[in-house]
Design brief:
Helices cover 35% and strands 21% of the residues. It is α/β, with parallel strands linked by helices. The strands form two sheets. A six-stranded parallel sheet has the order 1-4-3-2-5-6, sandwiched between helices. Strands 7-8-9-10 form a four-stranded antiparallel sheet. Helix 9 runs antiparallel to helix 10. It binds pantoate.
Amino acid sequence: MRIISHVDELSRTLEAARRDGRSIGFVPTMGFLHAGHRALMAQAKRACDLVVVSIFVNPLQFGVNEDLAGYPRDFESDIAACTAEGVEIVFHPSVEEMYPTPMRTVVTVTGLTDRLCGASRPTHFAGVATVVAKLFGMVGPCDAFFGKKDYQQVAVVKRLVRDLSLPVNVVECPTVREDDGLAMSSRNTYLDVPARQNALALSRSLFALVDSIGAGERNRLQIESDLVQSLGSSQGVTIDYAEVLTGDDLTITESIEVGREYVAAVAARVGAARLIDNVSFTLDPSGKLLADLGALRDGLPFVRS
Ligand code: PAF
């Protein structure tokens, strides 16, 4: 495995690989890699000839009072994870390499970023879209793998690719969960033992929502207010948001309509961490509920015990 820290070297190496007829799978990360990232790498490895992982904690996507300085980092263990997953290139640039001159260009995806995390983190998605656009420019034509735990991020990246006609195929991968349902996140490391237990309220309330739709509830407002009620009454949890939106453009409909993807998304402060989670679902034309609850570490669909 090769560790590359310069943009020119990365672009030249990947260009040569493409000339040799090799397809490129790209997994952008901020490091502190966990089983969720490893699932993205494994999926990239199955689909593509060469897998490149970027490890870069992007200052642009952190607000002034957010956890940039304390964001967890462990480069040695990240390298071990990439090696174990058969990654061929790790791109690990410095901040100066990524942003050699002050940025005068910012990529903003409008509309999709008004709600959910965009409402409480107003500069976050411009930071994500800008760095992802830069990384796509550096990597070149590729399949890029993103986890659905960051559902809004995936929606933003898909739209960015479409609007700017970038030669990238965005592959959405399921949220990876611990056996008890907690969505994997680098920020889970901030949870002490009681907070780790309290954090299960996020997935529990989302699974209860899926049950209520399965039982026939179709009124979006009712579904959302039940979600707020169940999450808000959980011990040690302070809600940032709990919303049910259309999956394609993250807007509101009055009821759950057949044939459309929806996402129920939550963010909450639990102990020292701000955590997010979501489930997506569709009612097929016969009214049958198809819900994506995520996957386990081994890639099998998550099933509640
Ligand atoms: O999801 C992340 O880890 C980051 O937002 C990303 C996509 C690597 C951009 O910095």
